[in-house]
Design brief:
12 strands, alpha/beta, about 280 residues, about 45% helix, two-stranded antiparallel sheet, ten-stranded mixed beta sheet, globular, disordered N terminus
């Protein structure tokens, strides 16, 4: 496929402004995520307009998930006990028709993490998987250099996203210096973002939660547009924060401020999208 840089005019679907729909609906989003990022994830969801809940007990999830619009499973803090929790949560979410996002943290760094991620993908209903290039490659039997939760950058991120979408049969989001979205064998690459986002722990994990809060806003035909707008908004918020500071500590605060302030019109004006034609 040939990659073509495009300035995409607003379509009837994109004019629905998913960012505003998210804020107006204030969706309850259940996050089972790693211990390092819980506070940042909750604050990021609140800033963007969602309603986070960090529930980790199956009995509690039985009460909360019927009212939730999304579930995030982030495998960062991985033990045998959390593995069982992920499986229970996914079973409950499936029972109530709640869309789910899997963030397979460091799946490319070790056999155990990969085994857990593949178990969740193969035996449970996952609506979308989000990871870096190394994590996504591991899920489809490929290998990219990784160091813990970090992954080497690759040039063909769009091709990797497409292969993963085809093999896994679900939408795929790959994040890195360039981000890629693959839905129903269609691929878009996004080139917004700030290098400072890599210096704040949890920006990728928060994105997984943001996607979990957003995927209910679109049907199968419009999901690619929805993901493009939400991911672009997230990355452009990073650019806005960088304009305020070049220090990682204050960047984290400015990033939360930018998530709160960003508008769909700014996304349409500033997004950089490459897609396959």
């Amino acid at each position: 496929m040939e990659m073509v840089l495009s300035i995409i005019p607003p379509t009837e679907e994109s004019s629905k402004m998913y960012l505003e729909k998210l804020r107006s609906q204030n969706p309850l989003t259940i996050c089972i995520t790693n211990d390092v990022v819980k506070n940042f994830t909750a604050n990021g969801l609140l800033a963007l307009g969602a309603s986070p809940a960090m529930s980790e007990y199956p009995e509690d999830l039985e009460d909360l998930l019927p009212y939730a619009k999304g579930l995030l499973i982030n495998t960062g803090t991985l033990t045998n006990e959390t593995w069982e929790l992920y499986k229970s949560a996914l079973d409950i979410a499936e029972k109530y028709g709640v869309p789910t996002v899997l963030d397979p943290v460091a799946a490319g760094a070790g056999a155990y993490r990969k085994k857990v991620a593949l178990d969740l993908l193969h035996h449970h209903t996952i609506s979308l998987v989000r990871g870096n290039a190394g994590e996504i490659a591991a899920l489809i039997g490929e290998s990219i250099e990784t160091k813990g939760v970090d992954s080497a950058q690759i040039d063909n991120v769009g091709e990797l996203a497409l292969r993963a979408n085809q093999q896994l049969g679900i939408p795929v989001v790959i994040t890195g210096k360039k981000d890629a979205i693959a839905v129903n064998h269609q691929v878009r690459i996004l080139e917004n973002g700030s290098e400072l986002m890599t210096l704040v722990t949890g920006t990728g994990c928060l994105l997984g939660a943001v996607l979990a809060a957003s995927i209910h806003l679109a049907d199968e035909d419009s999901l690619l547009d929805c993901l493009e707008e939400v991911l672009s908004a997230y990355s452009i918020a990073g650019e806005m924060a960088e304009q305020k500071t070049l220090l990682p500590g204050t960047f984290q605060i400015e990033f939360l401020n930018s998530l709160y302030a960003i508008q769909s019109e700014e996304v349409e004006e500033n997004k950089k999208v490459i897609h396959y034609e």
